[in-house]
Amino acid sequence: MSLSQWLRLSQWLRQWFRPLSLGERGERYAARYLRRLGYKILFTRHRQRYGEIDILAVEGQTVVFVEVKTRRSKEKGRPAEAVDANRQARLTRAALAFLKSHRLLEYASRFDVIEVVWPEDQKRPNVRHLQDAFPPVGRKQFFS
């Protein structure tokens, strides 16, 4: 194995076997939670020009855009409180871009927020799922 091949392999191994951050662990747990509820997960951490959507799922005939907020405790408020008006506008733009690019504008869609509170001394987190957490926000609304 050449040096350049070894460097590429070691970089790949570091990327795939690094410890997950709290946010990444929360997103993975939220995806498993949704699968158990019968949702079909299309994408996780879907990045595009307008932002990132944590989880893109389908429930029945509804496209669900899920924002996951993970915290160690509720000391500074509920995790869902971090999904403020600016974040909602960014999520709306990202969702609209996804729906337009995949020709899914005629399907129902909604925004959910999943709060994951994962204290260090617990193996499993406390999960709170807020369905239809907020309406689309922004200029010209959702279906412009």
Question: What do these coordinates show?
Answer:
The protein has a five-stranded mixed sheet. It has one domain: Trna Endonuclease, Chain: A, domain 1 (3-Layer(aba) Sandwich). The protein has helices spanning 3-16, 22-36, 85-101; strands at 40-48, 51-59, 62-71, 108-117, 126-130. It is an alpha+beta fold.
Our count of helices gives: 3
H and E order: HHEEEHEE
Class by SSE composition: alpha+beta
Q: Could you tell me the mean pLDDT? A: 86
Q: Specify Rg, calculated over alpha carbons.
A: 17 Å
CATH fold descriptor: Trna Endonuclease, Chain: A, domain 1
Kindly report how far apart the N and C termini lie: 55 Å
CATH-derived architecture: 3-Layer(aba) Sandwich
Strand order of the largest sheet: 1-2-3-4-5
Uncertain segments of ≥5 residues (pLDDT<50)? Answer: none
User: What is the share of helical residues?
Assistant: 25-40%
Summarize the biggest pleated sheet.
Answer: 5 strands, mixed
Domains, number: 1
Number of strands: 5
